[in-house]
């Protein structure tokens, strides 16, 4: 499955140079974004192999052309329960630090150029206890929450498991 | 990296190998071998190191190696009988050379070893007047050719180093050439006066093609194929060597003029070069027939002056060509060489007509068969092999995917492709085996570093130790080899320091004075298992336990089984040495070893028998290995169990299950009580499980366990894929693999699974439900 992504430029007087290009995707009715440079590819849902005693948002591992990578369920990570994955769901393959990982989301919506100045710091949310949200961007209609991918994935570690399941 | 640094790097790599060979040969000689080939090999190793070191300007190394080489030469020439030679000294010198090499490698200041040097210089002196040349200050010119060298001489950069050093020597000031002309340490016995020997005078002009080195042949090999006793003189004609800045070190520009007095016929001589040279590359002239006016060769009573003058002539020719003052020779400002013309006059006298030089230039058909026989090994970048390995892994997966596709085809189509698929699978497997074999290395590579460690420790600790290496040819992946050195060093240190008693204590205990440490490598349960066994006093359990209690690691009234006490040795901060020595005893040894080993997916354990000794067992995976696996299903999930750990499978119904008081299920299997684990419970498999098959598997320590699964899907070779690379360690699994349908299956690790079961950890399913 491949996705055609329409490009929309953020209307702004700011010069292009100071812009961040962001891929946005949806989980439920929420919009999230990450820098386009972190995205390696976008693929359709593919069955994963569960890992024993992993954190709840670790969906399992899959084979991407011979490389085994873990898939994280973003829905679970933000506390909305597990995704009931179907063929229309999407795995965003990302490079985080020195690892490659998959992020299970509902759909990829867009690529937008956002002036750096338009990124606001994330409000200190009580509920975002793992610091998953790095910043917010206001688009025409949506609020895009920029993800700190390292934080999303770090929670896949064994120590976080107890914490997460207790929190859940 | 600049080319010189790269060459230097390669030289140091070769040094490692050469040092290994040197130590091995010296060890063999020390243990009573009288094989002259061992002496030669040791000599050649140190000689190659010296040559390379000279080329790269490692002066301390050259200086030491030179003296060392000179004393080994006494053995070679028979001036010192092999039986009387001080091999302990030689081994210590080999260690010192190793130190110098690593100092040079790391650009550290070298430690001087005047004590060893002095001792070395005494070798061969007592019975005779000093014969050997005094060790000249570096840079020493290594001899360019060693006619007596053997065909299996190590070939490569070190040899190229020889060449470079030789070129340097030739361009050095003539004064140096006169006093120490680079030939006086040449270990050839002075040639017999030509006139006394039966046979005819023969002149050989050897003019190898430029690609000589690339054919993995070097002049030493060529010249070494001549009977050493027949050689009257050898001159190296360097007139063809291009200016230094344009020289390609892998080109051979040397020409040799060899005078022989021999009884060999033309055919015999031809036969001697069969392996190394094409017919166009040498010319044989019988002097009586062809050149009668060559008196200085035929009558030369000794070769020495003749050789010197030839060198001087070569030298003056080169200098003339360079048009430079001798002082400038080290950094020559060389003009492009004129077209090759006949150069040194004295050489010309015995030189065959210009044909000799013209012939090799003709693009004659190379003697391919002969060349291939010489190509024994090539160096390949590990990275390339890794890529190859990954690709082969992909092919294996694709192939099993194809097999599954074909099975779903209608029968008539299936039948047609079946044979092809069978061949394909056989070939893929063969391909895989071969690529694996390329990566594999014998554990010898790391084992051979241990004798030195033991020697040094024995000296420091005042103990007498014999190290026994067994099955050192067991092969394991190169990446693991690199990881073995550290834990092994620690284990041996521990055995020597804590395990073995002092010689007097041993005698008192009724044991031989000399302690024994045995190092054994073997493949077991898909792992490399290395054990270090000593026959010392074993683990002092009382002391260890007392210490653990005092540190609060064990409760004051906690009772431990003897085996459990032994395992405390791996606990952090425990050391039973009464005296903290610089060897060990700070209690940072074995716990660090255990952590490192476990981070590699390995395990370490200890078995001790008080008074009889102690055995450390290290088990490591054969990483990147492809393993033969049994694919099993449990619930919705499939797993792979390494076939090496499977002993037997049977229906659970036919096996009576009993339950122990604490709920542990056990089976009776071959009369033994075997614990039973349900895979679905341990690994938290998804879906409904219906375990009715039991797999009896073996743990690393040799115990049996039963593992209940739903179904055995099949048996196949699987490619081990790391889970750590993109995720992290997974309890119960050592790695993962990709099955024919492209899905991932975990490769179970029995020991890790049992630990998981013991910790009672469970399970993603309920966590998910909670989260949902």
Number of strands of chain A: 12
Give the biggest beta sheet of chain B. Answer: 6 strands, mixed
Number of individual domains of chain B: 5
Task: Specify the number of helices of chain A.
Answer: 3
Total domains of chain A, how many?
1
- Per CATH, the architecture of chain A is Beta Barrel
Give a count of the beta strands of chain B, DSSP E runs of length 2 or more: 22
**Given the helix and strand composition of chain A, which structural class is it?**
mainly beta
Shape of chain B: globular
Overall structural class of chain B, as computed from helix and strand content, comes to alpha+beta
The largest chain-to-chain contact, stated as pair and per-chain residue counts, equals: A-B, 35 and 37 residues
**Level-2 CATH architecture of the largest domain in chain B:** 2-Layer Sandwich
CA(first)-CA(last) distance of chain A: 33 Å
Characterization of this structure:
Chain A has one domain (7-167): Beta Barrel (OB fold (Dihydrolipoamide Acetyltransferase, E2P)), CATH 2.40.50. In chain A, a hairpin with a 4-residue loop joins strand 11 (133-138) and strand 12 (143-147). By secondary structure, chain A is mainly beta. The N and C termini of chain A lie far apart (33 Å). Chain A is 12% helix and 45% strand. Chain A is globular and about 40 Å long. With 772 residues, chain B is of the alpha+beta class. Chain B folds into 5 domains: 1-140, Four Helix Bundle (Hemerythrin (Met), subunit A) (Up-down Bundle); 182-326 and 344-362; 382-441, Helix Hairpins, CATH 1.10.287; 443-621, 2-Layer Sandwich (Heat Shock Protein 90); 626-771, SH3 type barrels. Chain B is 41% helix and 18% strand. In chain B, the strands form 5 sheets. Chain B has a 6-stranded mixed beta sheet. Mean pLDDT of chain B is 73; it is low at 127-156, 167-194, 289-310, 323-367, 369-373, 578-587 and 762-772. Chains A and B meet through strand 5, strand 6, strand 8 and helix 3 of A and helix 15, strand 21, strand 22 and helix 26 of B.
């Amino acid at each position: 499955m491949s996705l055609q992504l329409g490009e929309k430029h953020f209307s702004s007087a700011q010069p292009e140079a100071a812009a961040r290009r962001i891929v946005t995707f949806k989980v439920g009715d929420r919009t999230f974004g990450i820098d386009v440079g972190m995205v390696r590819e976008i693929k359709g849902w593919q069955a994963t192999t569960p890992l024993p005693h992993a954190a709840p948002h670790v969906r399992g591992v899959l084979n991407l052309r011979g490389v085994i990578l873990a898939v994280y369920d973003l829905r679970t990570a933000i506390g909305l329960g597990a995704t009931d994955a179907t063929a229309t769901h999407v795995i965003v393959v990302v490079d985080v630090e020195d690892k490659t990982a998959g992020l299970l989301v509902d759909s990829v919506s867009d690529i937008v150029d956002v002036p750096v100045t338009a990124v606001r710091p994330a409000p200190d949310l009580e509920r975002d206890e793992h610091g998953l949200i790095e910043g917010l961007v206001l688009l025409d209609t949506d609020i895009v929450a920029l993800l700190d991918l390292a934080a999303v994935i770090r929670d896949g570690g064994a120590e976080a498991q107890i914490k997460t399941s207790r929190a859940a | 990296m600049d080319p010189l640094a790269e060459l230097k790097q390669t030289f140091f790599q070769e040094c490692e190998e050469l040092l290994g060979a040197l130590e091995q040969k010296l060890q063999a000689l020390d243990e009573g071998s009288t094989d002259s080939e061992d002496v030669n090999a040791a000599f050649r190793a140190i000689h190659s190191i010296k040559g390379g070191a000279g080329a790269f300007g490692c002066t301390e190394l050259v200086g030491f190696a030179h003296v060392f080489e000179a004393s080994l030469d006494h053995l070679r020439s028979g001036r010192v009988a092999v039986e009387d030679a001080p091999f302990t000294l030689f081994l210590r010198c080999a260690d010192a050379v190793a130190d110098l090499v690593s100092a040079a490698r790391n650009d550290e200041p070298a430690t001087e070893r005047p004590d060893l040097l002095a001792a070395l210089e005494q070798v061969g002196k007592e019975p005779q007047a000093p014969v050997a040349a005094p060790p000249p200050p570096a840079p020493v010119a290594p001899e360019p050719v060693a006619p007596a060298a053997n065909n299996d001489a190590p070939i490569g950069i070190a040899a190229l180093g020889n060449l470079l050093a030789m070129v340097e020597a030739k361009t050095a000031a003539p004064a140096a050439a006169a006093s120490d002309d680079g030939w006086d340490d040449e270990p050839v016995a002075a040639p017999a006066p030509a006139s006394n020997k039966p046979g005819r005078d023969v002149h050989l002009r050897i003019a190898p093609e430029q690609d000589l080195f690339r054919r993995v042949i070097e002049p030493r090999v060529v010249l070494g194929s001549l009977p050493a006793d027949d050689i009257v003189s050898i001159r190296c004609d360097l007139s063809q060597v291009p200016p230094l800045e344009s020289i390609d070190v892998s080109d051979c520009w040397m020409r040799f003029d060899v005078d022989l007095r021999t009884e060999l016929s033309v055919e015999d001589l031809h036969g001697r070069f069969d392996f190394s040279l094409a017919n166009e590359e040498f010319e044989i002239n019988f002097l009586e027939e062809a050149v009668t006016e060559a008196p200085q060769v035929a009558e030369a009573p000794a070769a020495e002056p003749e050789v010197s003058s030839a060198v001087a002539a070569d030298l003056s020719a080169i200098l003339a060509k360079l048009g430079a003052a001798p002082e400038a020779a080290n950094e020559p400002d060389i003009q492009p060489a004129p077209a090759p013309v006949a150069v040194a006059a004295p050489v010309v006298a015995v030189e065959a007509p210009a044909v000799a030089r013209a012939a090799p230039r003709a693009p004659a058909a190379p003697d391919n068969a002969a060349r291939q026989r010489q190509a024994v090994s090539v160096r390949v970048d590990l990275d390339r092999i890794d890529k190859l390995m990954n690709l082969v892994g992909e092919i294996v997966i694709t192939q099993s995917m194809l097999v599954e596709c074909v099975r779903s085809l209608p029968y008539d189509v299936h039948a047609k492709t079946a044979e092809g698929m069978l061949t394909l699978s056989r070939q893929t497997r063969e391909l895989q085996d071969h690529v694996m074999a390329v990566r594999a290395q014998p554990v010898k590579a790391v084992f051979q570093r241990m004798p030195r460690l033991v020697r040094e420790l024995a000296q420091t600790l005042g103990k007498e130790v014999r190290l026994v290496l067994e099955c050192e040819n067991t092969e394991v992946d190169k990446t693991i080899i690199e990881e073995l050195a550290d834990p092994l060093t620690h284990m041996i240190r521990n055995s020597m320091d804590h395990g073995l008693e002092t010689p007097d204590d041993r005698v008192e205990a009724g044991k031989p004075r000399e302690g024994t440490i045995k190092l054994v490598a073997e493949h077991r349960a898909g792992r490399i298992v290395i054990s270090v066994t000593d026959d010392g006093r074993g683990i002092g359990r009382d002391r260890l336990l007392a210490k653990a209690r005092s540190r609060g690691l064990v409760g004051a009234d906690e009772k431990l089984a003897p085996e459990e006490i032994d395992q405390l040795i791996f606990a952090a901060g425990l050391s039973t040495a009464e005296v903290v020595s610089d060897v060990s005893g700070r209690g940072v040894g074995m716990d660090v070893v255990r952590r490192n080993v476990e981070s590699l997916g390995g395990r370490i354990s200890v078995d001790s028998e008080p008074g009889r000794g102690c055995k450390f067992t290290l088990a490591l995976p054969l990483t990147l290995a492809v393993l033969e696996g049994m694919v099993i299903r449990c619930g919705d999930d499939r797993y792979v169990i390494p076939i090496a750990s499977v002993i037997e499978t049977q229906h659970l119904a036919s096996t009576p299950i009993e339950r122990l008081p604490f709920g542990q299920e056990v089976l009776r299997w071959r009369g033994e009580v075997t614990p039973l684990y349900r895979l679905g419970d341990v690994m938290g498999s998804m879906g409904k499980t219906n375990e009715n098959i039991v797999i009896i598997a073996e743990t690393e320590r040799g115990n049996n366990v039963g593992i209940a699964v739903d179904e055995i899907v099949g048996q196949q070779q699987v490619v081990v894929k790391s889970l750590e690379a993109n995720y992290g360690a997974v309890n119960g699994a050592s790695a993962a693999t990709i099955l024919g349908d492209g899905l991932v299956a975990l490769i179970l690790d029995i020991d890790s699974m049992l630990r998981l079961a013991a910790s009672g950890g469970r399970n993603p399913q309920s966590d998910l439900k909670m989260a949902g």
